[in-house]
Backbone:
DNA sequence: TTATTATGTCAACGCGTGTTGACGAAGCGC
DNA sequence: GCGCTTCGTCAACACGCGTTGACATAATAA
């Protein structure tokens, strides 16, 4: 599926990184439960046993995959730009048509597609709170900031699920502009007022 | 977990129905992949082998569980009432706190929580299209009716996922009114204009 | 060189899953 | 009573999963 990396034999650091990269790709496209260690290892050009050996288990691998060693998603964004930025995250994430996500939003896809799965839910919930909910809520102010951020996350999750599981909202070139506008209005509605109690 | 039904021995129709009821409850709460035939059968007070025997496999059981032998979700709804109706579906579905869903929206929960899962995705996509997307789109008119209905489905899925996987938006009594208002505005934004190209 | 460590390979385990076939037992017509 | 069909029970299978330990081989030091 991915071209196996060669000429990297007997290099622990590079092997570890190859496994991590392959895991990120697969977790982002298929979700934690729907991919096996053998596939991840296979695309990394590595023996499946090494995954458990290097990372100490599949859950630890996921935990490492969603660690924030990639740039944060909401840095330098002004509150007024949030709707456009959120819509952009959804529209740019599947850059090359259907497959490899842009690296900077790969973490978002991992969270979206591993949300179900009892084994991954705790890790996913924690990472989503830290990487998405908290940054959005920090940009807002007033009562109900968390609730409004939650609604944004719901839209992110819903649109992501619709695309991956239902094949809807594919964002073809011809419709992308209209969809982007609709998503921005949706995020505006979510951010504008929610839980203002 | 559920009180096992007794005094139903040697009654094929009743046994079949008990399995189907248990399957609906479990699929709605845990999703297709996260529940085993042994649990479903156990809560139905039945041997696990009977599930495969009566329904011919787990996928067939899911197919039967989402069949529309329960009342449709969007009957007698006027377009203007759609936002309130959709918000109501999300807020009333977990009636007794956390657990047994109201029967009339159990099918909705099954679809939400089984959306990932490669084995169930085709069945879920088909049922979602028939039970949710098509009815909503039929209530709308003009260009982009399907895209707008898709956005509504995305909100349904997202909010449902957030609740089941992340434990957010729990809709406590004190916040329910505010959340309902926010959801209505969200659905209004989704229905108002989307994909108008 | 040889000895030692680091890295990768292989086969197998234990577990849970959905599924199937053989057997037992209840209902029912004769 | 018997015979036959229907229904339920039990044990086992085959499969895939994550994981582990024993072994082989490359890299490195003595």
Residues:
């Amino acid at each position: 599926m991915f071209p196996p990396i060669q000429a990297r034999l007997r290099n622990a650091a590079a092997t570890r990184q190859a496994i991590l990269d392959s895991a990120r790709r697969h977790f982002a496209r298929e979700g934690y439960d729907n991919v096996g260690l053998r596939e991840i290892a296979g695309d990394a050009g590595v023996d499946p046993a090494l995954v458990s050996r290097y990372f100490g288990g599949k859950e630890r691998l996921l935990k490492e995959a969603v660690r924030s060693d990639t740039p944060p998603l909401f840095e330098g964004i002004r509150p007024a730009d949030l709707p456009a930025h959120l819509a952009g995250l959804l529209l740019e994430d599947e850059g090359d048509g259907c497959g490899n996500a842009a690296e900077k939003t790969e973490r978002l896809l991992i969270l979206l597609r591993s949300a179900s799965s009892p084994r991954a839910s705790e890790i996913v919930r924690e990472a989503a709170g830290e990487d998405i909910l908290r940054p959005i809520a920090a940009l807002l102010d007033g009562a109900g900031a968390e609730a409004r951020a939650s609604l944004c996350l719901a839209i992110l999750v819903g649109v992501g699920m619709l695309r991956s599981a239902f094949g809807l909202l594919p964002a073809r070139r011809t419709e992308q502009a209209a969809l982007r506008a609709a998503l921005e209005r949706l995020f505006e509605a979510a951010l504008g007022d929610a839980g203002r109690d």
About this structure: Residues 1-6, 95-99 of chain B have pLDDT under 50 and may be disordered. The longest helix of chain B spans residues 118-139. Residues 9-12, 15, 46-47, 49-50, 53 of chain B lie near DNA strand D (CB under 10 Å from a C1'). Residues 79 and 141 of chain B are 10 Å apart (CA to CA).
